[in-house]
Amino acid sequence: MTVFEIWLGAFLTLAIFSFLYRDNPVYRLAESAFAGISAGYYIGLIWESVIVQFLWVPMTNPENPKVWLVIPLFLGLLMFARLFSGTALGKYVWLSRIGLAFVMGSTAGVFLMSELHGNVLGQMFGTMQVQSAQGEPAVLLTIIVAVGVIATLIYFYFSKEHTGALGVTAKVGIWFIMISFGAHFGYTVMGRISLLIGRVYFLWNDWLGSFLF
To answer: For the chain, how are helix, strand and coil distributed in percent, rounded to 5?
Structure first.
């Protein structure tokens, strides 16, 4: 990196860190710059990788033009009708709901199948098989997994009041849920700490090291 890039990166990093003291104009400047650059980057990425490669190029291919792509193009253009709200063309804002409904419906269908095959069925298969540790069957681990799954499912069974044995099992399910949430939270925190370590290393090695050492 050039000297200018290093100093710019250090300034923006320290500007974000300044929020640890309190909200201030420098932090808001860095926050706005990050949001604006991210939005511009993703707009360019979507334009090049989606609109150009998967819409315009196949549709205008002289050898085998995919004319049917005019339909998603038309639905996408309808979504821009929402921009005319409050103008003389405001009565046509409802047209944006057609494209939006198609996007929401198709996305829900795609994610439903991907979640079913990627998580639900895989989780069911992993739960019903014998667990192993270091290549050997682990009976205790298998029992813990089975008890945890059954207890957690019973916790979300609301057709009967959680009293007696059902209530005790539901409380066991709560413990398993809290352990799962804690593990996910710890994983997230460790991921953020790794990002913090990277920024501190940049400030110490690349920025301060460029003129102190």
So the answer is: 85, 0, 15
pTM above 0.70, yes or no: no
**Cβ-based burial of 155 (10 A; exposed 0-12, middle 13-18, buried ≥19):** buried
pLDDT score, position 213: 61
| Of 89, 104, 129, the domain-final residue | 129
Asked if 154 contacts 166 with a C-beta cutoff of 8 angstroms, the reply is yes
- Both 56 and 120 in one domain: the answer is no
Q: Torsions phi, psi of 22, nearest 5?
A: -175, 170
> Do both 90 and 79 map to the same domain?
yes
- Distance from C-alpha of 58 to C-alpha of 175, rounded to nearest angstrom: 53
Average pLDDT of adjacent 10-residue blocks, the chain of 213 residues: 87 92 93 94 92 90 88 89 82 88 90 85 83 81 89 89 89 94 94 92 86 66
Residue 139: exposed, middle, or buried by beta-carbon count in 10 A (0-12, 13-18, 19+)? exposed
pLDDT at 29: 94
Residue range(s) defining the domain that contains residue 3: 1-65
How many whole angstroms separate alpha carbon 121 and alpha carbon 107? Answer: 20
Angle in degrees, 0-180, between the axes of helices 3-17 and 25-46, rounded to the nearest 10: 120
Please give the Cα distance from 42 to 45 (Å, whole number).
5
